[in-house]
Amino acid sequence: MEKKAIKDYQEFPEGRFTKRLLFNEEGHIVFLLNFGPGQQLPTHKHPGADVYILQLEGNGAVTVDGAETALNNGEVVRITGDEEFSYTSGGAGNSTLYVTLITIPAPNYAENIG
């Protein structure tokens, strides 16, 4: 068993979002994406992988193949590898996404950012 405290991985530097790895195992990773108000995750895909995103804290909007959907605290979405998506944090405060990526498409997907 491995136990971690989410708060230890929530970092909100001014001007950029952060990605903090929680677990990195063969074939899947779990990480947090932390955003300040209005910050964005650029549009991208995860070819050959499924992505599960839980809005752990705050709110925002996820855009999948051009269709925007509100994502509120406690809601979760599944995005397939063929779908192009982005995320924009709500403007009222910080937000954190808990992300599980099944089948890592390339080694750089399993790296911290920011």
Detailed description of the structure:
It is globular and about 35 Å long. Strands 1-2-9-4-7 form a 5-stranded antiparallel beta sheet, with no helix packed on it. Strands 3-8-5-6 form a 4-stranded antiparallel beta sheet, with no helix packed on it. It has one domain (17-105): Jelly Rolls (Sandwich), CATH 2.60.120.10. Strand 5 (60-64) and strand 6 (67-71) form a beta hairpin. The protein has no helices and 9 strands. The protein has strands at 18-25, 28-35, 40-44, 50-57, 60-64, 67-71, 76-79, 85-89, 95-102. It has 114 residues and is mainly beta. It is 0% helix and 49% strand. The mean pLDDT is 94.
Keywords:
single chain, Jelly Rolls, four-stranded antiparallel sheet, five-stranded antiparallel sheet, mainly beta
In short:
This protein is mostly beta strands and 114 residues long. The chain is built from no helices and nine strands. The relative contact order is 0.30.
Q: What general outline do the C-alpha atoms trace? A: globular
Helix content: under 10%
Can you tell me the CATH class? Answer: Mainly Beta
Strands, total number: 9
CATH architecture title: Sandwich
Q: Regions with pLDDT < 50 over 5+ consecutive residues?
A: none
> Quick one: CATH superfamily?
Jelly Rolls
> Major sheet, described briefly?
5 strands, antiparallel
- Strand-residue proportion: over 45%
The total tally of domains equals 1
Instruction: Report the C-alpha radius of gyration, rounded.
Output: 13 Å
> What's the SSE pattern?
EEEEEEEEE
**CATH topology group:** Jelly Rolls
Mean of all residue-level pLDDT scores = 94
SS element count, helices: 0
